[in-house]
Amino acid sequence: MRENCSVKPFEKSIKKTYSSPCVYYQANKTDGVIKGAIILSLGSLITKILGAFYRIPLTSLLGAEGIGIYQTAFPVYCILLTFSSTGVPSAIAKLVSSGYGEKAVLKKALTVFIPLGILGSLFLA
Prior knowledge:
Structural class: mainly alpha
Strand content: under 5%
Order of helices and strands: HH
């Protein structure tokens, strides 16, 4: 009896070491998740290393008082950056995928995100 899976039993990509095409498909899916996690981890590590390099010249340029002011404002900036880099693209992608026309998506995006941008700018000022 054939198991329910999206892999057809006679595909060329199925290795003969697995007894079922579904087992091979699930193994490839798991390998893809692990590979993606490793790539994201390496990207994060590289970003952290590069982020450490700019602080050395910044400290010599700003001095102790400037760095103190910078480190006071930086966490607020990071929170707003996190919101804008995760929430905004997800919301727009959801609007686009729901089938709205491009003018409707633009109108909804502008009515939400322009006031949020102004409030964020006022908050940082």
